[in-house]
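Long-time lurker, first post. I've been practising inverse folding by hand and with some scripts of my own, and I keep getting stuck on stretches where the structure tokens seem ambiguous. Below is the full token string for one chain I'm working on. Before anyone asks, I'm not after the true native sequence, just a reasonable design that respects the backbone. If someone could post their per-position residues I'd love to compare against what I wrote down in my notebook.
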């Protein structure tokens, strides 16, 4: 038994899941936003479901927990009024953790959406999953370091269901994750990426080509102590480029701060012309500010905002009041663009094509974790580069042959490779780094040369197109492109899969 803890109301049981989920958010929406702004935002339960190829019982799950060595000082207590659930307390280092593990009959509402899964899902795998009769729930409340807490939750899934068919992250709108993804993310003691916490849904009007309205919104952040995030774009855009990076920049900074800075400009990036900022408003007020160009010094405080649905635009643009069903009426931040030359609320990406490039800002902590991961998994990059990066063949003419100056293995090869590395280059008198992309030309263990493909903002000693000596201590990221797909330190396992044909 847990000493001094006989009731645990924060984490709900699978029995409750199959009726109506109890939400851990306060009824007073104004109070919720005020608490988020103070860094005291309440968290919803983080819910993950696993599918096993064989039917399990709680005794078998207990045995697997008893034989694992990752968590220590563990204890099990069965949930009150639910014989199919138990609470598992344990430690990892100095951290005390609490999970709710439950078994339940397969819930028909748990749909598997292959589009949002971590990997392509074959028809055979989907058929096998659909034949299962049992849901295995692993639930917890994420702690202050939400990425680390989420990693512990995934580790519990790996321990309980080592032969996992498929997992579903219910908190992230049911995103599926495969056993291959799970095992690779837990391979090294490295941080998960920010994007693993949420799913981005994109909605656009289908009456026009190209679309004239867009609505991008996340699912998964309410378990992190911050609201979901939205972009409403009531205008055409030429590409989706920059939208995931913009959302990640805001989310990363908010998680790093532990709160959302409402109404205040937050640096998100820089173009050749100027600095770019984000201003976040509660969606109830943000909807009212679309296309208004309100000066930021005239914004209402959180206390003054009307959180009712009164006077909201309806059926005017995507994401307005007319689109707010029960699944999209939860707390969220609506993001607006502000810059030094125009301190008024603007929608993002209107006129961004006039800017040559935008460099998005990331917190130092996130950049550090990315660099650690890129270096730990550099051997995968080096292995593929040694085999496919410098084939001794003819240069293929045409568009694909000219992309990044690549060469292909022979005249008939229609699947060229491309390799890119991001390095932090020092500049100035302090320990400042400018992170830029290079195409490697030679590689010798930890030393390589690379052709710069960015125009530097700060590093005066380099210029776009120049070739420079580099080393792995400078690495912050890398990408491999093959057959139209991009592989990163988070997804390189897909390229190494036996099913992948090179």
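-- Answer (accepted) --
I ran through it position by position. Result:
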């Amino acid at each position: 038994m847990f000493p001094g803890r006989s009731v645990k109301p924060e984490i709900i049981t699978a029995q409750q899941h199959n009726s109506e989920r109890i939400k851990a958010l306060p009824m007073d929406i104004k109070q919720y936003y005020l608490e988020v702004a103070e860094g005291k935002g309440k968290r919803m339960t983080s819910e993950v479901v696993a599918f096993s190829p064989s039917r399990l019982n709680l005794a078998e799950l207990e045995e697997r927990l008893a034989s694992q060595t990752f968590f220590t000082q563990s204890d099990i207590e069965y949930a009150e009024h639910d014989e199919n659930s138990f609470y598992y307390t344990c430690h990892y280092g100095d951290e005390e953790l609490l999970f709710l593990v439950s078994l339940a009959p397969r819930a028909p509402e748990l749909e598997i959406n292959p589009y949002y899964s971590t990997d392509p899902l074959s028809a055979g795998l989907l058929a096998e999953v659909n034949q299962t009769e049992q849901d295995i729930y692993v639930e917890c409340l994420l702690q202050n370091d939400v990425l680390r807490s989420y990693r512990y939750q995934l580790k519990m899934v790996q321990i309980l269901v080592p032969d996992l068919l498929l997992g579903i992250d219910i908190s992230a709108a049911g995103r599926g994750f495969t056993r291959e993804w799970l095992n690779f993310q837990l391979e090294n003691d490295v941080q998960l990426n920010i994007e693993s916490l949420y799913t981005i849904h994109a909605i656009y009007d289908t009456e026009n080509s190209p679309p004239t309205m867009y609505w991008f919104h996340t699912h998964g952040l309410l378990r992190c102590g911050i609201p979901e995030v939205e972009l409403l774009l009531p205008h055409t855009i030429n590409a989706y480029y920059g939208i995931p990076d913009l959302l990640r920049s805001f989310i990363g900074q908010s998680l790093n701060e532990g709160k959302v800075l409402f109404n205040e400009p937050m640096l998100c990036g820089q173009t050749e012309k100027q600095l770019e900022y984000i201003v976040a408003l509660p969606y109830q007020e943000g909807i009212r500010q679309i296309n208004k160009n309100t000066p930021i010094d005239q914004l209402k405080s959180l206390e003054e905002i009307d959180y009712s649905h009164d006077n909201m635009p309806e059926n005017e643009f995507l994401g307005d009041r007319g689109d707010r069903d029960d699944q999209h009426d939860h707390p969220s931040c609506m993001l607006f663009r502000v810059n030094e030359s125009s301190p008024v609320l603007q929608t993002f990406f209107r006129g961004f094509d006039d800017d040559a490039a935008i460099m998005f800002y990331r917190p130092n902590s996130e950049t550090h974790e990315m660099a650690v991961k890129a270096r730990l998994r550099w051997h995968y990059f080096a292995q593929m580069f040694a085999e496919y990066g410098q084939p001794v063949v003819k240069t293929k003419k045409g568009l694909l042959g000219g992309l990044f100056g690549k060469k292909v293995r022979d005249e008939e090869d229609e699947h060229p490779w491309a390799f890119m590395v991001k390095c932090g280059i020092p500049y100035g008198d302090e320990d400042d780094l400018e992170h830029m992309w290079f195409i490697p030309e030679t590689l010798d263990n930890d030393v390589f040369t690379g052709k710069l493909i960015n125009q530097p903002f700060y590093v005066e000693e380099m210029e776009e197109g120049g070739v420079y000596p580099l080393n792995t201590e400078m690495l912050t990221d890398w990408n491999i492109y093959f057959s139209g797909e991009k592989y990163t330190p988070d997804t390189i396992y897909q390229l190494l899969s036996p099913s992948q044909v090179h």
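A couple of notes from the structure itself: The chain has twelve helices and 21 strands. Confidence is low (pLDDT under 50) at residues 1-10, 12-24, 391-413. Happy to go over any region you disagree with.
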